[in-house]
Amino acid sequence: MVSAGAVVEVVVEVGGGGEVVVGSVVGVHAATTSAEAATRRSPGRRIRCTGGSVPPGSVGSTEVLIPQDPNTLHRRASILDRLADGDDLEVAFRRIALGARLVGLGWMTVLVVLALASGTLVRPVHGWILGGAAVAWGLASLAGARRRLDVVTARGSVTVDIVLAGYALFAPRLAGAPDQLFYGGYPLIVVAVAAVRSRKAVTAAAAVLSGLSLARLAVGDVAGVVEAASQVITYTVGAAIFWWVLEVLRRSEGERRAALEAVADARARAARAEERAEVATHLHDSVLQTLALIQRRAADAEEVAALARSQERELRRWLFEGGSASGDGLAEGLRAIGAEIEDRHRVRVEVVTVGDAPFSPTVAALLAATREAIVNAARHSGEQEVAVFAEVAEGRATVYVRDRGRGFDPASVPADRRGLAESIVGRIERVGGRVEVISTPGRGTEVRLEVSP
Amino acid sequence: MKVFVVDDHDLFRAGVRAELADTFEVVGEASDTDAAIELIREREPDVVLLDVHLPGGGGRIVVEEVRKTHPDIVFLAISASDAPEDVVSVVHAGARGYVTKTIATAELIDAIARVAEGDAVFSPRLAGFVLDAFSAIPVGEVDPELDSLSAREREVLQYIARGYTYREIAEELYISVKTVESHVSAVLRKLQLSNRHELTRWAHQRRLVD
Fold this sequence. Notes:
The complex is a heterodimer.
Chain A: E1 7-13, E2 19-26, H1 28-41, E3 46-50, E4 62-63, H2 70-83, H3 89-118, H4 125-147, H5 155-174, H6 186-197, H7 199-219, H8 225-296, H9 301-321, H10 330-345, E5 348-354, H11 361-380, E6 385-393, E7 396-403, H12 418-430, E8 434-439, E9 445-451
Parallel strand pairs in A: 5-6
Antiparallel strand pairs in A: 1-2, 1-3, 3-4, 6-7, 7-9, 8-9
Helix pairs in contact in A: 1-8, 3-4, 3-6, 4-5, 5-6, 5-7, 6-7, 6-8, 7-8, 8-9, 8-12, 10-11, 11-12
Chain B: E1 2-6, H1 10-21, E2 25-30, H2 33-43, E3 47-51, H3 59-69, E4 74-79, H4 84-93, E5 97-100, H5 105-116, E6 121-122, H6 124-136, H7 151-161, H8 166-173, H9 177-193, H10 196-209
Parallel strand pairs in B: 1-2, 1-3, 3-4, 4-5, 5-6
């Protein structure tokens, strides 16, 4: 029956039929805002807003992209966690780059040592230089990474890699044994490390190494065109593949973060909206009611002062002590509310309770909604008596508020009658309860409130 | 019809006396248990309007003592805001009904007339107390005839607690007013014959909790 103040659940639909509840918000407006936020942050997946009392179609569905279902997102996150502190993809990439560089340098060192041992090098000094440089660079890189991981893919490091790989390509010729092979997998690894750094770096690495391979063909080092071509293809295609794989991983990580942010954002928005609704409801129940009373009794200065004083007390308590000033439980709270309304509205409130429920947020909501229902009866029924009956049994608390007054047609209540809509129905639905209003013109009204405390 | 008023509150007695004077013959009043027992036996009213809370042991003593010698005298309990166990104990002792002091004059007159005719008069509050008392009796220890309410009786009591009159209940449940009355009388009979031990225990627990 209500819509403006209804609870709306924002649901993000994900693959495989699963859905994630992003949060519950109050009101169609808040739901739309929340859905829009999620849409902005992660284009592509579907966001659906549902609410028990929202008329179908009043909240639009939007296409929103969340790359994978959150379970997978979390699973991947845990793998990342193991590789990188704090779930950072770039940290993981740099660690992999460092490991690859060390493998490449080690591989190269082994080849050089084998060549030196075989005694086939005419000028072994180049073998010593290359082997020494490989070991030194490996140790320096490791030491640098221990201090700061960024160093692994710093411009200088990538330059050292390219120079060393270039030297490794020509070292056999310089050593007088052009048929030897020193570089192993190092040049390809250099391309990969450069790919972690940047697009420019990987392009440079692939270009330099391909150029040097062609130069070797020109000076006659390489067995033939086929080998030179295959090296060029390896470096250029390798560069493209490395870059592509890294880009895919980076983009998907970005989306994962955006999705998680969107969820967190929607939750925060929902919490804020709920809080706003709570404050609005409270102000409506207390301050606005008192102001209305003050206007009606403006002639009676004493009464006005008393009303203002009591409202001030109540508002202070609500602001500074947090929450309603109800007693120990449902029964005590209802009696206090009945007494208060008897004083303020000059009607008789007969409170009957069977069983009791300890104070909780749900009971607080039930008390607040009951209070509003009694006030409505006191103000609109035209009768001097309101009957309140509460029964707690089998895990349910039910409150009936009944008057024998003029009644109304529930179907004809205008949407802006906030009292019934937000203060009663909104409150009860927010804590998962139900509200039923039975009223017939001329035959009184009964409001039935049910929750599971 | 002769009515006797027992209440320790002078102003209340005077007020009730004035309210009832036009309809009934108020044959006497008392403000404590001993005087009440003695005067009621002497004046033999049809109905005693009895305050639940009285100096000298409470309204329950008056009902128990008077009924030993005058079982035909009918009691209607009345109170401001007494503990449920006190109210239930007065009804348990034999009062035909219970109303609160905030009751309107016309309703009080109607209630007195009805108990005099043998009907049970349940105020919403008494209905609540009785539902509470019966729900506190543990299942399994009950004599189904006496210690538990039927679904219909429970329903009728709930309507009373919600502020419905017998006529309104009859309309809601599509039964006659007479049937509603017989359900209420049945509840009253069960309450008065119910296992004294269980009710005492219920009252005791209430006291500990309150």
